[in-house]
Structures are given as C-alpha cells and as structure tokens.
Amino acid sequence: MEQEFCRPSELNFKNKLHEECGIFGVYSFNSNSKISELCHLGLLALQHRGQESAGMAVSNYNEIKSYKAQGLVNEVFGGEELSKLKLKEAHMVLGHVRYSTGGEDIPENIQPLNVNSSKGKMSLAHNGHLLNALSLRTELENEGSIFHTSVDTEVLAHLLARAEAADIPTAFKEIHSKLKGAYSIIILEGERLIGLRDPKGFRPLVIGKLDDSYIMASETCAFNTLGAEFIREVEPGEMIIIDNDGLKSEFYSNNQHTEQKSLCIFEFIYFARPDSYISGRNVHQVRREIGRMLARDSIVKADIVVPVPDSGVSAALGFAEESGLPYQRGLIRNSYSGRTFILPTQKMRELKVRVKLNPVKEVVSGLRLAVIDDSIVRGTTINSLIKILYKSGAKKIDVYSASPQIVYPCYYGIDTPEQSELIAGDSTVEEIRDMIGADSLTYLSLLGLISAVGIEKDQVCTACFDGDYPIKPGS
Ligand code: SF4
After folding, report:
1. How far is the centre of ligand 1, averaged over its atoms, from the C-alpha of 183 (Å)?
2. I want to staple 59 with a disulfide (CB 3.0 to 4.6 A). Which of 20, 78, 92, 459 is the partner?
3. Into how many domains does the chain fold?
C-alpha cells in the first residue's frame, strides 16, 4: 500500500476529523537548554506518522514558546527556528507531526494547539479522532465558545477550559465521559506534562526515560533514536502526570476493568515503524510472522518474492522464509519524492507511481513474481505497479495482501476513504483481481492476522475488516 489512504479530513468534512499523527513530550527535572533539540530528534523518529506539518512548544513553567509550520520536520526545524525556541530554564517540550487534507490544511490546525484560558496556558498534542467532535463543538458554540481551528483537539481544549475543576487533571476527569473516540494526548501546562490514553487504547502511547527526563511518545522508535530507556506503555484509560514530584499514574475511567480494549491492529500492519514495540511485540517481527502466515495459507507458484517497499518489506521477508523462494528487490522506492498530486489519466497515474516506485528490469524480467503489499485500499497503486512490472518483462504476477480486505472506513484516526471508494467495499476477491490486473490475488485471513499479531480478537480493533466497530459511528 503506497499512500492510498487519503489523509485527515477536518471537522467540517463529513463529520469526520482524522488525525494520523505522532506526538512527543519531554519533562526534564533540571532545566535543559537542549530540550528543543531532543524534541526535534524525537519528531524525526516519528516522521512516518505525519509528513505534512510539524510543531513544537517549549515551556519554562512561566512561558510557552511555540513554532509550527507545514512541511517535514527538517523543513520546519532544520534552520533558525529551533534556536528561536530557546527559553531560559526550559523544563518541558511538546511536539507533533501530522497529516492533513489538501483543501483544509490551514496553519491554525497545526499542532501543538496553544490555548490561553482562566486555567492558564497550555499546549495540546493529539493523535486520534473524537467521533462526537462536531456535536460537542455545536453545543459549545451555542453556549458562546469561539473556535479558531477546525480540529477536534480544540473541542477538548474548550471542555477543559470550561470545566469547574481548577486544575487540568481534575478537569479532564470531570469531562472525559463526554469524549467518544480515539485519543492519545499529551498536554503541557503549568509545571506538568500530562499523558492520556482513551479507555479503549486505540492509539499507542509510551513512556521512556533519558537521564533526568521522562519522555512520552507515540512509539518506542523515538526512544531508540535518543538512547532513552523504554519504561512502559500508557494503559488505556490511564492518566500520567509528570511534575517535580516525579511520575504519577491514575485511571480516570470508572469502568477501567470492564471496558473492552481496542488497540488498532493496523498499527502492526502499516502505521507503526518496524523497529517499534507495541504491546510487547516488535512490529517488524509481527509483520514477518504475517508474511509467514500468508505463505502458509497459500499455494505459491512463483520464482521470486518481491516486496512493495517500504511497508511490504517485513511481510515479504517472512513470506520468502516460509515459501523457500528467493527474496528480491524488484521495486526500488524513491524516499525523496515527497508529495505527488492526484493525476487524471492512467498514464499519468503510472508516472506518479514510477516516481515513487521503479522496477528493476534485470530482477523481474521473465519471472513469475509473488508481489507482497501490506494492504490494498483503493487498488490504484497496485494496479499501476502491476502494469509497470509487466512492462518490465514480468511473466506472471501473483499479488499477496498482508492484510484482509479493507471493507469498511475507519472512524478512529486513520482516514480511509468512504466504503464506496474502497476496492473491497463491494467487490469479490476475483473482481478485485480482475480490476488490478493480477494473475492471482490472495488476502491474509482475519484469523491469520490475529494469530500472527498474537493478541486476542476482543483486545484489538478490526473494524475496517469486519465492520465490528468498538464505538459505533454516530453513537
Ligand atoms: S477501523 Fe481499522 S484502521 Fe481504524 S482503528 Fe480499527 S483497525 Fe485501526
């Protein structure tokens, strides 16, 4: 799957606001003049979670300095901007990377969101999606609230500001039952850093330690980059408060023990970086196991295994190991191509794919290929890839998807298209095979996926495959 998910839509778009994001926060017990550099490195490690904008807020308890802009982390913070974020006696930093939709990618929506209220100044960084953001916003507007952005994070900021409780942790406990959806959030305010994960735990959030600092991040790969020690995951329904007294934990949700957990299984398939750990599992190893499972469940008649890079690489390795076929880099990815535009004709779409992924003729020519992709969303990329591979002389192309058919849209922070735009939305496997132009098409079964991930079905969200939504859309 190559950039087939459309990226986040905003609040006023089909009542869905999707934020595919990476969040990163540091609390240092001693003042740290290099805290913004730490955040810069952390955001670079999380770049895969959001490539359209980046932002940072630094605090010395009295003042918050912030800078955010559209672009990759190094485009935003590679020049003078980092030095402008210097604050005397800085103790805390909060960073964010995000995707956004084309038309509504307004600068105001870039996070961290900085807010001034009677409870003081705070910065918020959010990964996820509140299903009821629009209705909450309408209520708040009817009561006089004025919004400056179209992101759901601002809804949370207003709820916190209007809560009766004087401090933010108590305010969150007061208002959390109003929130429906997926959220992993870091809040920088006053003299503390607060980490929150929704009661179902859709999106990951982890805690690490580096020297005299605690770190919270979307993924453990950010700790590896910094040489920080991974401590543990923030549990679903847990609030972490880090201040001068140390790290405190409390569960804000009353039904903590009965709430069914719903970790997004797609983190294992596509979103997380392969060197990250989620629920104690290394993502690369899970993907390898997914590839093995796929090969085990298939009759493979090919000469070589070719991954669609980068997201299909780990699964293709496992597939090659299990099938005994040679693993070959038949497609080369250009990591520097950046954004490409939606192009109207098939020839131009092929060109777009070629800019990102180019076949190695010497590898594929005259051979039967087992092409492994992590998933198939609209089917446009794999369709173009197949055409390109045939033009490069491939004799036969069998496509293997390392995830089951994506039949339903996601409402929890991953902006899949509407069901009508999903190639598996109302088509059989044979119809999809025909549409993408492959000789054969095999999907991993949902049971196979769950078994490879190794987490019980009732602990993960699989809604985009089976429509079993942990929180019903519109509820
Ligand atoms: S619907 Fe799919 S992408 Fe969305 S949270 Fe569930 S498993 Fe993840």
Report:
1. 13
2. 92
3. 2
Contact of 101 with 59, CB cutoff 8 Å: no
Buried-exposed string 356-394: b where 16+ CB fall within 10 A, e elsewhere: bbebeeebbeebbbbbbbbbbbbbbbbbbbbbbbbebeb
Give the Å distances, CA to CA, from 374 to 86, 108, 335, 377: 41, 34, 17, 10
- Out of 278, 457, 458, 462, mutate this one to test ligand 1's pocket (max ligand atoms within 8 Å of CB): namely 462
**pLDDT confidence of residue 84:** 87
pLDDT in tens, 235-274: 999 999 999 999 999 999 877 777 889 999 999 999 999 9
> Which residue carries 């250009």 as its tokens?
334
Mutation test residue for ligand 1: of 49, 127, 410, the one with most atoms within 8 Å of CB:
410
pLDDT tens column, 146-179: 999 989 999 999 999 999 999 999 999 999 999 9
User: Tens digit of pLDDT for each residue in 73-124?
Assistant: 999 998 888 988 999 999 999 999 987 543 356 788 999 999 999 999 999 9
Of all protein residues, the one whose alpha carbon is nearest to atom 8 of ligand 1 is 264
Kindly state whether residue 48 falls inside one of the protein's structural domains.
Answer: yes
Catalytic annotation on 264?
Answer: no
Question: From residue 282, how far is each of 92, 273, 275, 289, 333 by CA, in Å?
Answer: 29, 9, 6, 11, 24
- Domain of 82, CATH number, reads 3.60.20.10
Q: Are 218 and 127 in contact (CB under 8 A)?
A: yes
134 CA → ligand 1 middle, Å = 20
CA of 268 to the centre of ligand 1 (A): 11
Distance 125 CA to ligand 1 centre (A): 20
Whose tokens are 């970086």? That residue is 273
Which of the four pLDDT bands, split at 50, 70 and 90, describes residue 18?
very low
Catalytic residue (one of 6, 21, 410, 461)? 21
Whether 139 maps to a domain, the answer reads yes
Does the pTM surpass 0.70? The reply is: yes
Q: Return the CATH number at 349.
A: 3.40.50.2020
Q: Which residues partner with 186 through β-bridges?
A: 125, 195
